[in-house]
Amino acid sequence: MKIVRTPFLMLLLLASISCQPKNKSGKQEVAQKESDPHLETKLISGQLQKYETAYFASGCFWCVEAIFESVKGVKEVYSGYSGGSEKNPTYEQVSYGRTHHAEAVEVYYDPEVISFTQLVQVFFGSHDPTTLNRQGPDRGAQYRSIAFYKNDREKKIIQDYIDKLETENIYGNRPIVTEVEPFEKFYKAEEYHQDYEKRNPNNSYIRNVSIPRLNRFKKNFESYLKEDAH
């Protein structure tokens, strides 16, 4: 198993930049102005039925979606909400902490190319699992770290990897606070959040947080990347 020791401390310098909107509609307005409809390349549900799914939460879903989309064997990634009990949550509700959901991603992948174990390695290798209810400049339970499992096999894979990280003292004295939870329901986020990093490259959060986070991941996981992601 590949274990990455690179810390994410530099994100703490970006506390003034957040994935959370500054007002009720400001973030959506920016997204709508900058989005290029020609970049909307999401596969339709019928094209995805033959693939496996995995679910993770590790901070702002713009960043997490872009990271998993760069991984070979991953066919599609959707941004959305999971981990709470509220039905049909909206971005405004989740981002302001008005639900128990976290920003999460739904990953469609080909298990003949990439395994669930490797996706778990991608998950832990692309964020800091020791920061409680926080990832970089984003704070609140909606940005907490969660690895969801759909069966006992996936649960064991996740827990075994956490045990390995702790046994090898990867994070020093900082305990891993990632929640390991059974998957129940994923709510797809609003359309303007899908492929947000790709469609909004000039957004200040994307330039200062999301792209640097993606580049750090790429540097540490070169062998996991798609050909066009290098």
UniProtKB/TrEMBL annotation:
The active site is at residue 60. InterPro entries: Met_Sox_Rdtase_MsrA_dom (IPR002569), Met_Sox_Rdtase_MsrA_sf (IPR036509). Residues 53-205 form the Peptide methionine sulphoxide reductase MsrA domain. Its EC number is 1.8.4.11. Pfam families: PMSR (PF01625). It comes from the Bacteria. It catalyses: [thioredoxin]-disulfide + L-methionine + H2O = L-methionine (S)-S-oxide + [thioredoxin]-dithiol; L-methionyl-[protein] + [thioredoxin]-disulfide + H2O = L-methionyl-(S)-S-oxide-[protein] + [thioredoxin]-dithiol. PROSITE patterns: PROKAR_LIPOPROTEIN (PS51257). Residues 1-21 form the signal peptide. GO terms for molecular function: peptide-methionine (S)-S-oxide reductase activity. Keywords: Oxidoreductase, Signal. Belongs to the MsrA Met sulfoxide reductase family. Has an important function as a repair enzyme for proteins that have been inactivated by oxidation. Catalyzes the reversible oxidation-reduction of methionine sulfoxide in proteins to methionine. This is Peptide methionine sulfoxide reductase MsrA. It comes from Flagellimonas halotolerans. The lineage of its organism: Bacteria, Pseudomonadati, Bacteroidota, Flavobacteriia, Flavobacteriales.
